[in-house]
Amino acid sequence: MSEKDMNDKVNEMLQRSEANVKKTEKSFVRPEDEEREVVAPDGSIIKVNPIYDYFSGEKPKEEKPCSGVIEKFLNWARAESIWVLGFGTGCGSIEIPPLVTPRFDMFRYGVQMRPTPRQSNAFIISGYLSVKTLKRVIRTYEQMPSPKYILALGSCTINGGMYYDSYSTINRLDKYIPVDVYIAGCMPRPEALLAGFMKLKELIKEGKGEKANEYARNFDEYKANQKKIIKDWNMPDYNW
Amino acid sequence: MKNLIEKLTEDFKISDVVYQRPDLAFVTVPKGVAISLVTELRDYEGFSHFVMMSCVDWIEEGKFQLLYLLHNPKTKTDVGVKTFIDRENAEMASAHHLWKQVWTYQRELKEAFGIDFPGSPRVDENFVVEGWTEMPHMRRDFNTKEYSRDTYFPRPGRETNDPAEYMRKKLYPNEPITAKKQDNDK
User: Fold this and answer.
1) ipTM higher than the 0.85 cut
2) Domain A68-229's class?
3) What pTM, to 2 d.p., does this model score?
4) A10, B158: Cβ pair inside 8 Å?
5) CA nearest A149: which of A65, A210, A226?
6) Which tens digit of pLDDT belongs to each residue from A171-214?
7) Which member of A21, A168, A225 has the closest CB to residue B124?
8) Domain span holding position B117
């Protein structure tokens, strides 16, 4: 990079810094998400509001289970294909690689990893969860298709664990998103995680894997708790 | 090292010198000349590598202590330049013009201790925590335990044990407590 390029880059960053100082006084919304007017290819002027234009304006709805045998069959099918989102939120995600590799091999139980929330129905919250990560977790969780399941891994998600007195990590995950299975330990071994998956399968087969509906039912309460700690709420309320 | 510091003592009002190792020394200077000394060390004495910058909260004295640690790659020696600034309305001259990585350190100090560095690029942006509205979280008078209790819904029934005592009770319940252990406990 030549010196001129470097100077240009520095100047650009300086300007961004000045712009940011002015922004923070007003709101936390990022510049690219602000309500503004843009010129369309045909010359007409369109008003855009990225946060509300691209996302749903409706609250999540409860889904009623099908009747009798059909629901049983569906639950059996759901239990046998758990697709986990590959998103490690804390220290515990280091337990997932051995789980995927031949020693513990979770594929034999019908559990596999997916790269996007749109294709997955299980989410492992691995270990401590900082407020910054919680924000991303909420966005991700809400984008997952229902029915969806949460496995809370490690004692930090249950009661704060060794970070219970930290200013930046949450204590109880179930106040912010509904949790299906807790796996206690610091850290739990991959066997414990497998046992957690077995437990989750049992719950689904019994028809108790209905936490997505619980989230829809108590949506306002969960949202209030989330907004209590995420002070710079610059994302849509309904992320789907 | 000794010669260098003796040479600079008069010009930069160096008050407190600690020779920690043959290749590491710390000097304390007044707030006004700290950046000049850092510049002198960089431009004329070969301390061209900026190792790090940190802050200590001396709450009893009402001061913050800033440390600039510099490294001389030719002689393989380090010098730490320390300076005290007031805790109330903490402000320090920015050193962002000397090394670009100082930006990041100053941004971190602004967020964690609330020390302002006027003119430092991007100093007001978030560094680690997002949307923080409380007192800067690394100040010693910020009570992180209380904040966590009031904010994050502590689970009722949670018990906390002192690890050393708990392990001794569990593993060696019959062993008498020796004098050494008693000292450690205090």
Assistant:
1) no
2) alpha beta
3) 0.82
4) no
5) A210
6) 999 999 999 999 998 889 999 999 999 999 999 999 888 899 99
7) A21
8) 2-157
